[in-house]
Amino acid sequence: MKVVLYSVLYLIPACIFIFMAGMIYSHNRYSARHITCSLLYVFSSMWFFGVFTSLIIYPKYFNTISIYWVNGSIAIGALLSLHLWLMNANMYKKKNGKYLKLLFVPGIVMLMTLPFESWMLNGNAHSLESKYIPGTGLYLLWLVDFSYLSIVIILTILEIKKGNNAAKLWLKGIGIYFVWTAVTLSVAILFPNTSIANFFYFIMPHGSLFWAIAIFISMSRFDYLSSYERRYNILFQRSPLGILMIDEEAIVHEASPQVPRYLGVTREELIQSSLLSFLSGIDEKTFIEEHQNVFKQQLKLENVELSFVNRLGKQLTLLVDSDFIIVEGKTLQFVMVKDITETKVKEERVQYLAYHDLLTGLSNRAAFEKQITDLLSRKEMFNLLLLDLNKLKQINDTFGHQAGDHAIQHIANVLKEVTKGKHHAARLGGDEFVLLLDVGETEQMIENIQQKLAIPLKLFNQKQIRLSASIGISCYPHDGETIDELYSVADKRMYVEKHGAK
Fold first, then answer.
1. Contact assessment for residue 239 and residue 256, using Cβ atoms and an 8 Å cutoff
2. Is this structure's pTM higher than 0.70?
3. From 3.40.720.10, 3.30.70.260, 3.30.450.20, 1.10.10.10, which CATH number describes the 228-345 domain?
4. Which of 41, 125, 423, 428 would you label with 232, given CA atoms 20 to 30 Å apart?
């Protein structure tokens, strides 16, 4: 009957711990957190197996099993729990985080002193008549174990303050475990050499069940110790968008298949590397400053455009949206990107066509009106110059319309050469062009235009023609203060010059 009772009390929980250890390890066998947590469950099960074994063969080897098996499992479990929570809180990655490893020294030292039985127990550990009376070493071992549990609780509270919802469940589970263990141990110490003491010693492991339940609830509810493989297959692998998770230093922790294709690299090159190393053509200092500011203020990005040159030398524009998530206790930026390069090119083409002349590449009438309106609003003095190609109809009739287009393009190229910087040139239509010039440079600009037009133009059939143009000028504000007034004055003066040329 006792065997059945002990099996229910200890073997079933031990098997549950083994099952949970296997499940966690199978979720992600490459994660240090998963491995540590599964080992923690293994040694928790060893605690139950040890108590079960000591009860079955009692009193033979009872003291020895209690020292080496039971207390050894507890001590190793305490070390593993401390290591797990330090990783969850990212304490190792903080400044001087490497020194936190010194916290494990007391626990390791106490484990090394387990063979000194007179230090661990008062009496002969191998004697059947000897009572189980803890010695100084065993009390110190328990003190170290409770110290580690206390640190775990402190780390959990800190995670709660960071907004980690899973940590709230951890605190409840660990808190109950801590109280359960403290109460059972205190009662056992206060009533030594009694049946009450023995009873509370043997139910001490059951408090860890509350802690284990809390961990599993947090797994299902808050993705704690979640499966990277499942997330990859369901979300990353099938998403038409590029998805990646990066930390505050722009280190890539995970990426969907689309992202390496965008960047022109392999997934192996990308993971655990700085995203900046794959983005050419951007200011790295400005990028990281803005990125860390977004992290600091937890800003969500919406429809932000990022243009860069990838490793293959291709210019790309990505549309970026992001939010923040906590994965295994670490805050990461969850970024979704969409390639809008083709759309952007089409938009730029439409924008270009809206303000440029197709034949010459010069600004069109809409761009000219926008430019002159801006100058008028600033009330800056300038000259408006109208230029009209002479004898275009004669060129078309003699050499064909292709020659006429070639002549117009030649005029446009001349204007592009001489109107660099703050000057502006546009084609209003047909053979009519307009320039907005600095007053002090207008005379020199006209001279440059005339000199370039004096050079004969070669046609496609190797024939040459000489081009000339009529020019009319108006000055703001002397000749008018509106577009119509300035245009009218310049047009009349151009007509006079053209009439004189004829």
1. yes
2. no
3. 3.30.450.20
4. 41
